[in-house]
Amino acid sequence: MIDDVYRGEKVRLVAIDPQKDAQRFASWGRDSEYARLLDSDPVRIWSAGQAKEWIEKQQKADGFEGIEFMIRTLDGDKTIGFVGLDGISWHNGNSWVGIGIGDRQNWGKGYGTDAMRIIARYAFEELGLHRLTLNVFAYNTRAIRAYEKNGYVVEGRAAEVIHREGKRWDMVYMGLLREDWVNQMRE
Predict the structure, then answer these.
(1) Rounded to whole angstroms, what are the CA distances from 183 to 106, 150, 177?
(2) To which H or E segment does residue 162 belong?
(3) Which end of the chain has fewer CB atoms at under 10 Å, N or C?
(4) Of the candidates 56, 58, 35, 59, which has an alpha carbon nearest to the alpha carbon of residue 46?
(5) pLDDT in tens, 12-38
(6) Rounded-to-10 torsion of CA 46, 48, 53, 59
(7) CB-based contacts of 114: which residues, under 8 Å, 6+ apart?
(8) d(Cα 97, Cα 57) in Å, to the nearest integer?
């Protein structure tokens, strides 16, 4: 049995606090590379007030369709990003997964991989979900490697969906089934 379902080897998940975390979201969004890894929409800057309104709207959404957490490092207890489940279909046991590591100095250190491991454990063991799905831009090879380390497999591609800096990129769809996750945990 796991003592703390929200704790991994490098990070832990905590509740989002609109008052404290809105400024972080606004600050991270000013980094256009981060924004382009996170969203297919054109980059835009949000104020802390706009970020706070968005967080509060997400938290009040009817139907318990999403659960989001902030990611904090175990070493230094620093907030570095977010991870969450969205579009939960309780009847089918499916959810979309999203993650963002906000500060560049925390990229490539395994924090995202660990957070994805924790959210999968939470989704499958706590919530009893059957499947997790995500999409990622083909140019985000670092994220694709992290997802594959957690057992996600490429299930399809949508050709040339994203337009960035004069070039077209594919959207990659990846999935993880509970059974495959359980088998990976046994290895």
Answers:
(1) 29, 11, 10
(2) strand 153-164
(3) N
(4) 35
(5) 999 998 888 888 988 888 878 887 888
(6) 110
(7) 8, 9, 10, 11
(8) 19
